[in-house]
């Protein structure tokens, strides 16, 4: 018997609640990454303190909502999704409890992660790697996972949330007539994140590194899965 998933994936909205959740989840990820030896992945400066990051994130939320409502492709078809699970009084810290969403019927949902995708798009730092088998944005139909983050503050309640997000994105891609799902993974820390994506069915097609000012090189692996 198939056990139903405890997660549901919904479109993010340009609201204070979703904006606060996304930015605070980015911030909370940094000490978690440092604790597992991945401090080089995203650095140590909180995202909320990086210039206009919050304002830019709100703009992206508006673009995502516009694309959803009008079936357009502003900002290369940018879409942002939030994964959440019904909340049953599990222990939460004060900050996480502020993100609970209450439905009209009284059910409570806890956001535990988010993802950002674009269509027929490849980031410039990947495009610059001429040795990689980069998908053709003019001829191929694909979804690109720009970022995916689960909320380290909720402990075990996020277990499986990343897989649920990726399954939701694959379903979204099918509905859009896409044929492949691409992602670039952090390749450092003994390739633990690469192995995670491989366990989700992704195939690695090439590695690269690029220099960063006053930092060690960023190690990357390009991966894809058929939709």
TrEMBL record:
<dbReference type="InterPro" id="IPR016181">
    <property type="entry name" value="Acyl_CoA_acyltransferase"/>
</dbReference>
<dbReference type="InterPro" id="IPR000182">
    <property type="entry name" value="GNAT_dom"/>
</dbReference>
<dbReference type="Pfam" id="PF00583">
    <property type="entry name" value="Acetyltransf_1"/>
</dbReference>
<dbReference type="GO" id="GO:0016747">
    <property type="term" value="F:acyltransferase activity, transferring groups other than amino-acyl groups"/>
</dbReference>
<feature type="domain" description="N-acetyltransferase">
    <location>
        <begin position="51"/>
        <end position="227"/>
    </location>
</feature>
<protein>
    <recommendedName>
        <fullName>N-acetyltransferase domain-containing protein</fullName>
    </recommendedName>
</protein>
